[in-house]
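Deliverable D2.4 — example input (structure tokens):
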């Protein structure tokens, strides 16, 4: 009798443990929200031949200055920039505006030359007319052809021409030879798209 009581007591002691073992596991703690990755900085891209105004973003997109043909001219050699259907070999930024502000950007169209006394490439002139309102250069035989807008606006006009390359006595820079080669042309002229700005 005493033995059976001990068994009964023992059985009663085991029951709670058996029940505990069968309890469902607690749900996992909710995972912490993953940190939102920072947005990649927007890369400025020139989306028209002449931008409406000269901004820091525009100039920065050209990369580092690679030559100084003259005291008030900086040269850039941007990678992957196309203008009017042609790659750009280099850009001349002319600081001749008020307090040294840029009043002209000259885009050298790579591989484009105009024989002295000959008109510019007809397809290039058509592309110019398409991009610039009121331009009428498709049939021009002149060495330069362009369009002039209001002088009180940031962007005042544009032209296809041979550019004005100035080489000063202190010209320097690792890419100066590109400008020098154009400067030294004899029977041909380099072809530029010049964009003019108010410079104020």
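Example output (designed residues):
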């Amino acid at each position: 009798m005493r033995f059976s009581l001990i068994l009964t007591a023992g059985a009663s002691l085991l029951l709670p443990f058996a029940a505990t073992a069968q309890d469902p596991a607690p749900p996992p703690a909710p995972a912490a929200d993953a940190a939102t990755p920072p947005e990649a900085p927007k890369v400025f891209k020139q989306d028209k031949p002449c931008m409406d105004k000269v901004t820091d973003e525009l100039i920065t997109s050209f990369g580092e200055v690679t030559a100084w043909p003259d005291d008030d001219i900086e040269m850039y050699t941007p990678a992957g920039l196309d203008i009017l259907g042609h790659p750009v070999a280099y850009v001349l930024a002319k600081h001749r505006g008020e307090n040294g502000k840029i009043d002209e950007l000259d885009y050298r169209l790579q591989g484009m030359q105009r024989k002295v006394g000959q008109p510019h490439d007809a397809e290039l002139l058509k592309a110019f007319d398409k991009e610039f309102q009121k331009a009428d250069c498709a049939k021009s035989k002149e060495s330069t052809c362009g369009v002039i807008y209001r002088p009180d606006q940031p962007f005042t006009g544009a032209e296809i021409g041979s550019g004005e390359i100035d080489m000063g006595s202190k010209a320097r820079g690792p890419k100066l030879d590109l400008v020098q080669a154009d400067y030294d042309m004899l029977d041909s002229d380099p072809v530029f798209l010049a964009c003019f700005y108010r410079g104020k």
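The chain is about 20% helix and 25% strand.
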